[in-house]
Amino acid sequence: MSIHIEKLNYVYQSGTPFSHRALTDVSLDIADGSYTAIIGHTGSGKSTLLQHLNGLLKPTAGTLTVAGNKITPETKNKELNELRRHVGFIFQFPEAQLFEETVLKDIAFAPKNFGKSDEEAEDLAAKMAELVGLPASVLQNSPFELSGGQMRRVAIAGVLAMEPQILVLDEPTAGLDPKGRLEMMEMFERLHQQQNLTIILVTHQMNDVANYADHVLVMEEGRLIADSTPQEVFSDPKWLKGHHLGLPQTTAFAAKLADKGVPFKNLPLTEEQLAAQLAELLAGKGDEQHG
Amino acid sequence: MDKMLLGRYINGDSLIHRMDPRGKLFLSFYFIVIVFLCNNWETYVLMTAMVMLFVKLSDISLGFFIKGVRPLIWLILFTVLLQIFFSSGGHVYWHWGPFTVTDSGMTNGVFVFCRFVLIIFMSTLLTLTTTPIEISDGLELLLKPLTKIKVPVYEIALMLSIALRFVPTLMDETTKIMNAQRARGVNFGEGNLIKQIKSVIPLLIPLFVSSFNRAEDLATAMEARGYHGGEGRTKYRKQEWKRNDTIAVILFVVLTIALVVLRK
């Protein structure tokens, strides 16, 4: 279920005095089963790009192929439904999409729309509720009685219940406390590992990029300015700073150490990598002193 | 959503933009009243010329005004047809049952059409050249005398400005929730009538919920900043009556006199 995008252009309100170009000649590939992070400033075109992935927007020019469905500016709206079945989209603050009387019904809404019977959908819903860590006791409650964190879990379960092969996440942890954020990211990582789900994550959290992604896309003013691995993108703090992007905490810490003369082989991205490199360096230094 | 132009402000610095909102509001209403004085070709030509002059002065292209007419075109055509088929008097061109097409009916049809277009152009001119906040401030000042007879003018103006302020927010929210539900397999505007009505529920309920939440947040935020009703509240944006406004008023007085002289 790979994604292939070629020369994608999108103009908002094209043909009016308010016309505004959001994407310019974006070409990229996303491999099946990969974990891709998209970073870039507010207004850089990230969300516009995401909305193309399940046909919420159609390109002004260019083509994209998602899970075997080709979308061009001429694609009819009816044909987009087939695409949406494969692509789960978790929006920013997804709890805004809840509307049913009970949690269970809300989670079952999407599978029902995509042709599952009531029973199948509710079985699926109960399974997904468990997967996102909702206690069984809340399933018959109104979603509006839940806490903010739980509402978000309901909304996420509602998208997972479509059993998508591609999961698009638009800042899924915005507004959560650190514990909730970690739990949420660990959950997506589990899904990625266990179900070989292709994940596309838009985020401002460089730590998440370093910890989870294996592919990074950097957007700026509607253009794709980098398409590589976290290792490579974060190895050049100067370039990042020039584009007003930050480093993961660990890498920033390591960069400061490097400035003070600690000879890292390459800048570590995660705590484990940092610890391992430091241990190696300290051991080496110890040997020198003793030797 | 992007086709909604009615009530959209376009930034500019024309003569019309710089007028006092109170003057613009009052004259726009006044214009609607005096449009009804027109009853022959001369008066309609005069009014059309005036409106075209204002459009020219506003530095906004005519296209925006024509787009303002579009949402109401069916209502206008319906009224015009009523006039054409049900007016009596004058030379009869065609006759069938209760329907008659006469020359005076045709003329009336054209007049009604002109009247609609003139009124829409004028109100579009007001909203295109005046920010919503200026309109509600202006309305508040114009209606102030009514506080004497216990009309809740401040509350009305506040409700108006909050409503206007949240139109774009609500539209964004609608797009967002529509997208989210589309991604969950809802097809808006497809299928039979029952299906379509059903598809509105997943849109309306989240919108209501978020509107109530927002209203509560807004109330808290206003109280936290010391809002306690309009009484004794001072204004950051002062509206000033300038010479241009006086000239505009004089122009309208002259226009009224001309209309009274020219009409049958």
TrEMBL record, chain A:
Molecular functions per Gene Ontology: ATP binding
Record Pfam families: ABC_tran
Root EC class: translocase
InterPro entries for this protein: AAA+_ATPase, ABC_transporter-like_ATP-bd, ABC_transporter-like_CS, ABC_transpr_CbiO/EcfA_su, ECF_ABC_transporter_ATP-bd, EcfA2, P-loop_NTPase
EC number: 7.-.-.-
Residues annotated as transmembrane: none
Keyword annotations of the record: ATP-binding, Cell membrane, Membrane, Nucleotide-binding, Translocase, Transport
ABC transporter domain mapped to chain residues: 3-246
Keyword Membrane annotated: yes
Subcellular localization, as worded in the UniProt entry: Cell membrane
SUPFAM superfamilies in alphabetical order: P-loop containing nucleoside triphosphate hydrolases (SSF52540)
Mode of membrane association: Peripheral membrane protein
Family: Belongs to the ABC transporter superfamily. Energy-coupling factor EcfA family.
Subunit structure, as described in the record: Forms a stable energy-coupling factor (ECF) transporter complex composed of 2 membrane-embedded substrate-binding proteins (S component), 2 ATP-binding proteins (A component) and 2 transmembrane proteins (T component).
Function field: ATP-binding (A) component of a common energy-coupling factor (ECF) ABC-transporter complex.
Protein's name according to its UniProt entry: Energy-coupling factor transporter ATP-binding protein EcfA2
Organism: Ligilactobacillus acidipiscis DSM 15836
UniProtKB/TrEMBL annotation, chain B:
One Pfam family here: CbiQ
Gene responsible for this protein: ecfT
Lineage: Bacteria, Bacillati, Bacillota, Bacilli, Lactobacillales
Protein name: Energy-coupling factor transporter transmembrane protein EcfT
Function per UniProt: Transmembrane (T) component of an energy-coupling factor (ECF) ABC-transporter complex. Unlike classic ABC transporters this ECF transporter provides the energy necessary to transport a number of different substrates.
Transmembrane intervals: 21-38, 72-94, 106-128, 149-167, 246-262
Cell location: Cell membrane
Superkingdom per UniProt: Bacteria
Presence of keyword Membrane: yes
HAMAP family: EcfT
Protein family (similarity comment): Belongs to the energy-coupling factor EcfT family.
Bilayer topology term: Multi-pass membrane protein
Subunit details: Forms a stable energy-coupling factor (ECF) transporter complex composed of 2 membrane-embedded substrate-binding proteins (S component), 2 ATP-binding proteins (A component) and 2 transmembrane proteins (T component).
Coiled coil: none
